Amino acid sequence: MCRQEEPEVEIRLFQVPLAQQIKGLQDDLYDVGFAQSDEVGEGIAAEAVWSDPLMVAVPARHHLLRFKRISLNELLQFPLVLCDPQACEGHARQVERVLRSCDREPLIAERVATFELMMVVE
After folding, report:
1. Which residue has the higher pLDDT, 91 or 107?
2. What are phi and psi of 89, to 5 degrees?
3. What confidence score (pLDDT) does residue 23 get?
4. Residue 120 phi, psi (nearest 5)
5. 44 and 67 part of one domain
6. Helix, strand, or coil (residue 108)
7. Is residue 81 domain-resident?
């Protein structure tokens, strides 16, 4: 809609790690950024524009499917595949915050670079 109403305004989109995005906003390289974290430091305003619940993906016949809602203690009985903190910094921060709320140490089977890879690693 912006391109239709203001065709002379150039809009360019970039996908960058959160740390690079924050630096780009601080250095006036970027005007706006979307992130999966509100931990952006001083001098930058962060406001939630949508919210997605954290989900667990399991095979079709997994033991956890007997639960309507899966407790963190129940989940942490199984190895986890998580996004690499450098590749998915904002998402990794959110997941880490949730995992720290439990006394049980998670068993991390694999760290992957994308959400798509999380779905294919067994």
Report:
1. 107
2. -55, -50
3. 92
4. -105, -15
5. no
6. strand
7. yes
Structure tokens at 60: 């079709």
Q: Cα Rg for the chain, rounded, in angstroms?
A: 18
CB 112 within 8 A of CB 118: yes
Residues 36, 49, 54, 105, CA torsion sign = positive
| pTM exceeding the 0.85 threshold for the entire prediction | no
Q: Which amino acid is at 72?
A: L
Kindly report the number of other CB atoms within 10 A of residue 111's CB atom: 18
Q: Which domain does 106 fall in, by range? A: 63-120
* Number of domains composing the chain: 2
Residues 23-42 have pLDDT tens digits of: 999 999 999 998 877 888 88
- What's the average model confidence in pLDDT over 78-105? 87
Calculate the alpha carbon distances from 34 to 15, 22, 42, 68 in Å. Answer: 9, 10, 16, 31
pLDDT band at 122 (very low <50, low <70, confident <90, very high): low
Look at residues 14, 30, 51 and tell me which one is the last residue of a structural domain: 51
